[in-house]
């Protein structure tokens, strides 16, 4: 497999060289031992995949590390995965959040955002969100996602029930029915907190015409519930 | 939620007291601070759930720790989850295996066994299998599984294709078709190694009439693939 380099927001134009610095340059040079003439793939995280050759490789200094110049020989544009699956949940504690973002990336989920429920306990810190943005970019390289998983802002449960038109909103809950497959292009999955959704929240979901569905016979931890619901939604076409 | 105690193979008979020792007794007494008269649930890992009261609680000694006598007031027998889903895969490396067993337990998978493929790299050591048996028991308590996830012996890919009658064998592969839901009572999911299945293995799967199915649009790590395939299989009734 060709080594992948992620440069979110990079401009990918055939024959116009791209500068690669920092960790990506260090990893390509020192870990993968790539050098001038070798092939790499550059992902812009927004559907662009450029098959490149390394044109130049130089050491800027001890602190600055390495810098590469790579030239796209061919640029492909890949459409986003359908349906567009968005997951909103309380952030699982500790390292489970990072691992969940990695798994959701591999599953093909488009976006994850922290969900604020009445019984939510965990509010993610800014540095944690930065860390999982990096996780999402790393996961994209590993599983070859042309579109990186987006990390959204925290949103209140009641607001999350109101999605843009054409979106199917599904509340994952142990007492729900079996998930019904959909032809909707956008699916929003809401996973409640450890302490469960309140009666009031479930009523609000019904009033907003959200589907209340269960994705397994047992009580699942948040990260497992998010993965199960995503896998089922993306497989039910 | 009533505190759960797992005693694999315990005999659960109403009014016949059960002895609880070791970690389970220590955890109930010292962490959960339970004592005589408190309610606990004892799981035998084979469908039995006993609602008990603590009758006695004594310290055996510094090394031996605590011992409890609990009395079942009511014993329920719960049928196994259907369909009976069995997952066979190369063991993910390091701690990923432990985490995967935990997730598969929550999803309702009945059994996991290590799979030996032509390109397999990892053969799990005995102490690792012991560790994940404990993980499966712990997970049962957390998600309230009456039947603990079983850990099977290592089996060769070609042998795994031959399952007992009434079992649907599904090979999870990136180039497969969409999974077709089944009314089979038993489903066996085979997930190939990091280096992929060989052409010969895929041909053997076809010759054995196994279904070759994909469970997501991207390349997944082994643990994610096992979870996705299990979630979809258990949700497709």
Report what the structure shows.
- Two copies of one chain form a homodimer.
- Chain A has six helices and twelve strands.
- With 237 residues, the first copy, chain A, is an alpha/beta fold.
- Chain A has two domains: 3-77, Ribosomal Protein L25, Chain P (Beta Barrel); 84-235, Alpha/beta knot, CATH 3.40.1280.
- In chain A, the strands form two sheets. In chain A, strands 6, 7, 8, 9, 10, 11 and 12 form a seven-stranded parallel sheet that branches. In chain A, strands 1-3-4-5-2 form a five-stranded mixed sheet.
- In chain A, helix 2 packs parallel to helix 3 (126-143) and helix 2 (96-107) runs parallel beside helix 6.
> Any low-confidence stretches of chain A, pLDDT <50, length ≥5?
none
Order of helices and strands of chain A: EEHEEEEHEHEEHEEHEH
- What is the assigned CATH homologous superfamily of the largest domain in chain A? SPOUT methyltransferase, trefoil knot domain
Q: N- to C-terminal separation of chain A?
A: 29 Å
Shape of chain A: elongated
Considering DSSP H and I runs of 4 or more, what fraction of the residues of chain A is helical?
25-40%
- Number of helices in the DSSP assignment of chain A: 6
Number of domains of chain A: 2
Q: What is the second-level CATH architecture of the largest domain in chain A?
A: 3-Layer(aba) Sandwich
Largest sheet of chain A: 7 strands, parallel
**Cα-atom radius of gyration of chain A:** 20 Å
Stated plainly, the CATH topology of the largest domain in chain A is called Alpha/beta knot
Strand residue content of chain A: 25-35%
Give average pLDDT of chain A, whole number: 93
Most extensive chain-chain interface: A-B, 29 and 29 residues
């Amino acid at each position: 497999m060709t080594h992948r380099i992620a440069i979110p927001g990079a401009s990918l134009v055939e024959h116009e060289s791209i500068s690669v610095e920092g960790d990506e340059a260090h990893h390509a040079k020192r870990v993968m031992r790539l050098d001038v003439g070798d092939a790499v793939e550059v992902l812009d995280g927004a559907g662009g995949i450029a098959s490149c050759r390394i044109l130049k490789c130089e050491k800027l200094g001890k602190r600055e590390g390495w810098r590469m110049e790579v030239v796209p020989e061919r640029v492909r544009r890949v459409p986003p995965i359908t349906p567009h699956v968005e997951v909103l949940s309380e952030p699982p504690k500790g390292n489970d959040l990072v691992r969940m973002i990695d798994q959701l990336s591999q599953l093909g989920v488009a976006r994850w955002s922290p969900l604020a429920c009445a019984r939510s306990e965990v509010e993610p810190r800014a540095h944690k969100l930065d860390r999982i943005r990096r996780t999402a970019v790393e996961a994209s390289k590993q599983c070859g996602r042309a579109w990186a998983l987006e990390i959204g802002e925290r949103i209140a449960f009641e607001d999350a029930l109101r999605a843009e038109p054409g979106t199917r909103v599904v509340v994952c809950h142990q007492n729900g029915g079996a998930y019904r497959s959909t032809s909707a292009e956008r699916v929003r999955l809401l996973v409640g907190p450890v302490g469960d959704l309140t009666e009031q929240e479930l009523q609000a979901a019904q009033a907003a015409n959200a589907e209340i569905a269960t994705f397994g016979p047992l009580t699942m931890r948040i990260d497992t519930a998010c993965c199960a619901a995503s896998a089922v939604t993306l497989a039910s076409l």
